[in-house]
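Board notes (copied after class):
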Amino acid sequence: MAASGWSALSFIAGGACALAGTAAYALCLAVNRRADAGRVLRAHLVAQAAKVAVAVTLVIAGLNSDWDFAAGPLVAGFIAAVLVYPFALLLVNTKTDRN
């Protein structure tokens, strides 16, 4: 595969690492449905730890794999996927503040 093909695949794989972390977060919260505020907070913290652990583990696995992922695009895809949500919140909050 051409170098640009590996770069694109690496970028997508980095985004998929972040998406898998988010899926782990959602799974943890789906399993730990609680009504008590303390238990909700604990479930959130456990889910956040699972999200970070899954995402970072997958990025490290991608960097150490034999698939010749390009490190720069892999990390850039991961960072882009992680930062989409905060930027979307910023845009939504900016639009609602004007109205």
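Comment from the instructor: The chain is about 85% helix and 0% strand. The chain has one domain: 3-98.
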